[in-house]
């Protein structure tokens, strides 16, 4: 199969890309286990893309059960260099209204002990993660949103995504705490993806789609799944339009990304001393450096 340079991870509500043509289901096994589901590989307006439903197409995986390493490794094995994640989020700011889109440029990690690195077992690497999403890829997605006429949608460029453990939603005290930290949105899935994508030298961005005001807003009911579902359908339609436009832009003008060289100065271990089994396991990620 020819390399597929653009990957899409669909979150809650986005289980398929309607406009994909010539689709093939590709089942991928990885040294980190099985991904969330089969990959759907096809073309969007002539450009090859790989789509993965983050929680599985029947939404059967909890946020803490997601096989983040396998998902990102499998994207890398397909040849993915640019990865767009679409995610449902709660809003932590009055100005971020349900149906709005946010392109977060920071994360706060409130998860508990989820695997979030490919390294270990005899090889140590520390990636730089000060800017956890790729600014160049985020800019392409921002241009795409701006080029579309999406009624009732305001784009918020930048903002902090709190990645909580879940699956229960936050307490009011937690929600207020995150607001006091200046965070914009809250979700349960994107932090590990962003870290692993950076380790795999894949440019990553999050298209965060607001569904609710979590539980802090005095004039809105506290978040429920029912409330979220009410906005998911609309958000999924908008997300597909944005992603389609972004794919066209990426295909015609792929931007340089700092993510593509993220490992250059990150690996501390002398590669000659890395155990053979670890080298084999990580060959896909290390290939440029071996
Ligand atoms: C459906 S409500 C909570 C659920 O939605 C978000 O998922 P995703 O990021 O995959 O869109 C959130 O992180 C929770 O997992
Ligand atoms: N309020 C919320 N908290 C965590 N994840 C969410 N996903 C959508 N809304 C959310």
Automatic annotation (TrEMBL):
It catalyses: S-methyl-5'-thioadenosine + phosphate = 5-(methylsulfanyl)-alpha-D-ribose 1-phosphate + adenine. InterPro entries: MTAP, Nucleoside_phosphorylase_d, Nucleoside_phosphorylase_sf, Purine_phosphorylase-2_CS. GO terms for molecular function: S-methyl-5-thioadenosine phosphorylase activity. Substrate binds at residues 188, 212-214. Its EC number is 2.4.2.28. Pathway: Amino-acid biosynthesis; L-methionine biosynthesis via salvage pathway; S-methyl-5-thio-alpha-D-ribose 1-phosphate from S-methyl-5'-thioadenosine (phosphorylase route): step 1/1. Keywords: Glycosyltransferase, Purine salvage, Transferase. GO terms for cellular component: cytosol. The record marks 170, 225 as: Important for substrate specificity. Residues 5-247 form the Nucleoside phosphorylase domain. SUPFAM superfamilies: Purine and uridine phosphorylases. It comes from the Bacteria. GO terms for biological process: L-methionine salvage from methylthioadenosine; purine ribonucleoside salvage. Phosphate binds at residues 12, 54-55, 87-88, 189. NCBIfam families: MTAP (TIGR01694), PRK07432.1 (NF005657). Catalyzes the reversible phosphorylation of S-methyl-5'-thioadenosine (MTA) to adenine and 5-methylthioribose-1-phosphate. Involved in the breakdown of MTA, a major by-product of polyamine biosynthesis. Responsible for the first step in the methionine salvage pathway after MTA has been generated from S-adenosylmethionine. Has broad substrate specificity with 6-aminopurine nucleosides as preferred substrates. Homohexamer. Dimer of a homotrimer. Belongs to the PNP/MTAP phosphorylase family. MTAP subfamily. This is S-methyl-5'-thioadenosine phosphorylase. The gene is mtnP.
């Amino acid at each position: 199969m020819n390399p597929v340079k653009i990957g899409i991870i669909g979150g809650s509500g986005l289980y398929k890309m309607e406009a994909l043509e010539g689709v093939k289901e590709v089942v991928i096994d990885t040294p980190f286990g099985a991904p969330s589901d089969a990959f759907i590989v096809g073309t969007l307006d002539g450009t090859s893309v790989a789509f993965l439903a983050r929680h599985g197409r029947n939404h059967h995986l909890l946020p803490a059960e997601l096989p983040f390493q396998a998902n990102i490794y499998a994207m890398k094995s397909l040849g993915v260099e640019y990865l767009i994640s679409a995610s449902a989020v709660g809003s932590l700011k009055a100005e971020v209204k349900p149906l709005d889109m946010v392109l977060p440029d920071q994360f706060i990690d409130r998860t508990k002990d989820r695997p979030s690195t490919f390294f270990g077992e005899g090889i140590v690497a520390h990636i730089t993660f000060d800017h956890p999403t790729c600014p160049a890829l985020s800019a392409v997605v921002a241009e795409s949103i701006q080029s579309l006429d999406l009624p009732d949608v305001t784009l918020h460029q930048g903002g902090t995504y709190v990645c909580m453990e879940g699956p229960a939603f936050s307490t009011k005290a937690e929600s207020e705490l995150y607001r006091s930290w200046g965070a914009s949105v809250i979700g349960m899935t994107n932090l590990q993806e962003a870290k692993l994508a950076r380790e795999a030298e894949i440019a990553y961005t999050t298209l965060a789609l607001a569904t609710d005001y979590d539980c802090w807003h005095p004039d809105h009911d506290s978040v429920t799944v029912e409330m979220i579902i009410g906005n998911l359908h609309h958000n999924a339609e908008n997300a597909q339009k944005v992603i389609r436009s972004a794919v066209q832009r990426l295909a015609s003008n792929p931007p340089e990304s700092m993510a593509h060289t993220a490992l250059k100065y990150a690996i501390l271990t002398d590669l000659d001393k890395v155990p053979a089994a670890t080298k084999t396991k990580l060959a896909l990620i290390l290939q440029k450096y071996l």
